[in-house]
Amino acid sequence: MWYGFTWFAMGYLRCTSVECRAKKILRQNPLIGTDGHNDFLIKTRILYDGNITSDDFRSKFERGGMELQVDKPRLEESKIGGVFWSAFMPCPANGSDFSNENYAPIVHDTYEQLELYHRLGAVYPRYFTPTPNATAANETWNRGTSEGSRRMDWFQFIAPVIIEGLHQIGNSVDNLRHYHRLGVRYATLTWNCHNIYADAACVINEKGQTVKSSPHWGGLSTQGRDIVLEMNRLGMMVDLSHVSVDTMRDALIGDGDFKNWHGSVAPPIFSHSSAYALCPHPRNVPDDILQLVKLRNSIVMVNFNPGFISCVESNDGTGIPIVYQPNNTIHQVVRHIKYIGDLIGYEHVGLGSDFDGIEDTPRGLEDVSKYPDLVKELLRQGVDDADVVKIVGRNILRVWQEVDDVAMRFIAAGEHATIGV
Predict the structure, then answer these.
(1) Which of 50, 239, 367, 398 could form a disulfide with 69 if both were Cys (CB 3.0 to 4.6 A apart)?
(2) CA separation for the pair 350, 346 (Å, rounded)
């Protein structure tokens, strides 16, 4: 009896260390953090011309040594359970031209990126099989969990695909619906250009510089509000990373200018943004907007891009701060997570690395394999185990489920598509 109790007590004591607690969290919970937002698909398009059967691609992806932050060995080392793969295409060269003709090549290339995602799924189904909804995401995780242990050599990833900016739909709601049928489960309202639906936080000027934007619509346009509701109806998450503060506010709660407009019915997300109070970048989320995130039961998934994590104001006229290298560390990433969690609650923060979309990374978070170190750093800085569980994946699954529930309410109410092509 005493012998058994001693072994039980020793087991308990062994799991008071940061190492043990981190392993337990990663074994029992889906870490959806490569991200919130990962640009592996555009890397594959640019560096390998989308040729995933080439010896070069297969060797580097399967054996390691791939450029930037993601390949198969590092995914396995990361202990993650899910990835939102971005079928990103950049804004057209003339981002102020909202014509169908200007967007046509972007739409064409977006379909190619979605096809690339599905081709990857045929070859590597473990990592690139579409996840249709939050219920399926939880079932996918549970199938890979056996009595609290995680077999990293075979479990299925939670792996939906997303788009980054409504310029990618080319002013066509039908394209949005078709993307949804192809597996897209969130859409960022803008990238670094305004569009007919919403204002962006930043634009690219005639010199090719990224600069803080001036308002075009003052938030969402009338068409933008319509398309947000269509995304609610489809069960597609509304992503507010990259949008202006006016657009953030308009999508979260509305501004009263339009009759009966109170923002998105389902909670929007910020898939890869950080805290403006710690790094004053136009892409980051100010404190007053963070309060609206809490009000809407939403989530901010912290971006690891050094420009959004460790920065100081510049005087170059762009309105874009410069990176402050001394604080470009894993510790600073956790500071952003803790800032948001302490301000509005740890139910409203997650991980949105932007890996494979960034060349520089924080020291200690050089690639996807460092996720266990991030979990340890959260614990070292005093974040409770239960809150870490929320941060690494439970929060985004909760929001995704609420988005699905809203879509089901639209169906139950007999709501059908009301806006045309």
Answers:
(1) 367
(2) 8
**237: β partners:** 186
Rg for the chain, CA atoms, rounded: 21
Look up residue 90 and give its DSSP letter: P
Find where tokens 């691609």 sit.
57
- pLDDT for 9 equals 40
Nearest to 62 by CA among 130, 123, 152: 123
| Residue indicated by tokens 């075009």 | 216
Question: What is the structure's pLDDT at 141?
Answer: 76
State the pLDDT confidence band at 99, using cuts at 50, 70 and 90.
very high
Q: Compute the average pLDDT of residues 42-47.
A: 96
Q: Confidence class of residue 145 from pLDDT cuts 50, 70 and 90?
A: low
Please give the full DSSP string across 96-147, using - where no structure is assigned: T---HHHHHHHHHHHHHHHHHHHHHHHH-HHHH----SHHHHHHHHHHTEET
- CA 81 to chain centroid: 14
CA distance 307 to 322: 7
Maximal CA-CA distance, the chain: 78
Phi then psi dihedrals of residue 112, to 5 deg: -65, -40
Look at residue 338 and give its three-state secondary structure.
Answer: helix
Q: Is the pLDDT of residue 358 over 90?
A: no
The dihedral through the CA atoms of 368, 208, 89, 263 has a sign that is positive
3-state helix, strand, coil in the chain (%, to 5): 45, 10, 40
Domain ranges of the chain: 30-412
The pLDDT of residue 154 is 53
Provide CATH code, domain 30-412. 3.20.20.140
Check the CA dihedral 321-43-178-105 and report its sign.
positive
pLDDT band at 6 (very low <50, low <70, confident <90, very high): very low
